[in-house]
Amino acid sequence: MTLLRRANAAGLLIVLLVLWEIFSRFALPALDTSAQLLLPPPSQGVRDAFNLAQQGVLWQHAAASAKRVYVGFLAAALIAIPLGIAMGLSRTLLRQLNPLVGVLRPIPPIAWIPITLLWFGVTDVQQYFIIFIGTLFPLLLNTIAGVHGLDPVLQRAALSLGARPKNLFALTLHAALPSIFVGVRTSLALGWFIIIASEMVSASTGLGFLIIEARTAMITERLYVGMFAIGMIGFLQDQLLVFLRDRLIPWA
Amino acid sequence: MGVWGRMRDFATTLAVLVLWEIVADYVYPHFVPTSRNIFPPPSAVIMIAWQLLISGELLRHAAYSLGRVLTGFALACAVGVPLGLSMGAWPFWRRQVSVVVEVLRPIPPFAWIPLGLLWFGVGDEQSVFVIFIASVFPVVLNTVFGIDAVEPVLKRSALSLGASKWRLFTRVILPAALPQIVVGIRIALSFAWMVLVASELIGSTSGLGYLILDSRNLGLPSLAFMGMLVIGLIGYLLDAGIRAAERLLLPWRG
């Protein structure tokens, strides 16, 4: 019953896919012989996905992108989380750094690409930097918000029970973790977004490169494969993060 | 005290700027004679901003970029809000469209750029297409979410006071959902601005994204920095504009 209902909900999706298949396979070539190049049927994408997966090309590109995302993210986390905790605890630090954050944060990470190309050239370090800059601010702001979100009642209760600074710090961290997790989740999703753009501009590996290369070679079905693969990775990563959250910080 | 306190907050920022100026002007070139080609002092950034402002080039590129963003964004609102409303009104339609949306949503908007380039070639249409894709999802999702979050008590009391379905929708549900719809529009606009820069970097010959990429070809890092700051500033102003409009138009929002 539930299966039937699910299939029922996917009705529109299936109808659209079938229409697309018919349109691309039969209607387009009748209109213009080259038009099918621009919009190949979905079945051709599935075939190309099998080919790429069999040759191992898809995994190589995905691994290259993943390495960039996670290295850049890790660097950002190592700086943003301690700094965010410090900024959350110290009003002076927060007020001193706020103007700098205010100027840098609205700059889209993608806008850093040209200047970082000047600095690092077409290297992985340049990609790490773009991810670093892109994931730094969501992590930082969510960490600060988490530290600020500590319930004053809890703090006073802890103090009246004789908490030492060490205990108080642990309490703050405990209270901040859910918000820090939101920062991690946001910035990892953003990291996968950004790496695609960054690899399209300057890289010779990675999923972003795969799709911009497919466009140059006019292999449109490979665009479908690349886009779908990117979407799947982002989706699975998010599911994994939610799974980890429920295990590691159940109070979130 | 207030003014003095505020000025004191900028101490670190000022120190960073001064240090940057000294390092970029005197220290770094001392070791690497060509350092100015990759690391400009803030004064050079200000200088080039002034030059481009006077020549009108900066405004011209900014106008191209703004035109693209606003076109794509307006299209996304024109499609996204009615689609979201219709999904909120008819559960069957909503279940059907949700599946399609859930399949497409995880794909990063940037990943549509190559497809846009293939279909529309280098130019405005490509940017508008990608911006549309990027901003339509937050608008749809937040519209649906806004309608879901309308308090059932409000709906029931309107119905028991004899409101017709149409009046219930236009006079109760829509105003109650509007703040959430505006949240979607805000997210959409910030997405749109981010995606625009990428689409101009990759497939355009005008606009601020193109300007900063060109700075790399010209070997003018000060131009890149200036472009980044202008892009950040415009993004900030767009968001501030929407928030101001929200306060003005939606005074019932808490």
Give the topology, please:
The complex is a heterodimer of chains A (252) and B (254).
Chain A lengths: L1 H8 L1 H21 L3 H4 L3 H14 L1 H33 L1 H14 L8 H8 L3 H25 L3 H9 L4 H37 L5 H10 L3 H29 L4
Helix pairs in contact in A: 4-12, 5-6, 5-8, 5-10, 5-11, 7-8, 8-10, 10-11, 10-12, 11-12
Chain B lengths: L1 H8 L1 H21 L10 H14 L1 H33 L1 H14 L8 H8 L3 H25 L3 H9 L4 H38 L5 H11 L2 H29 L5
Task: Profile the largest sheet of chain A.
Answer: none
**What proportion of the residues of chain B form beta strands (DSSP E)?**
under 5%
Please report which band the strand proportion of chain A falls in: under 5%, 5-15%, 15-25%, 25-35%, 35-45% or over 45%.
under 5%
Number of helices of chain A: 12
CATH architecture group name of the largest domain in chain B: Orthogonal Bundle
Describe, in plain words, how this protein is organized in 3D.
The complex is a heterodimer of chains A (252) and B (254). The longest helix of chain A has 37 residues, at 165-201. Chain A has 252 residues and is an all-alpha fold. Chain A has 12 helices and no strands. Chain A has 2 domains: 1-39, no CATH class; 43-248, Orthogonal Bundle (MetI-like fold). In chain A, helix 11 (207-216) packs antiparallel against helix 12. Helix content of chain B is 83%, strand content 0%. The model of chain B has no long low-confidence stretch (mean pLDDT 90). The chains are: A mainly alpha (252), B mainly alpha (254). Chains A and B meet through helix 2, helix 6, helix 7, helix 10 and helix 11 of A and helix 2, helix 5, helix 6, helix 9 and helix 10 of B.
Brief rundown of the structure:
Chain A has 252 residues and is an all-alpha fold. Chain A has helices at 2-9, 11-31, 35-38, 42-55, 57-89, 91-104, 113-120, 124-148, 152-160, 165-201, 207-216, 220-248.
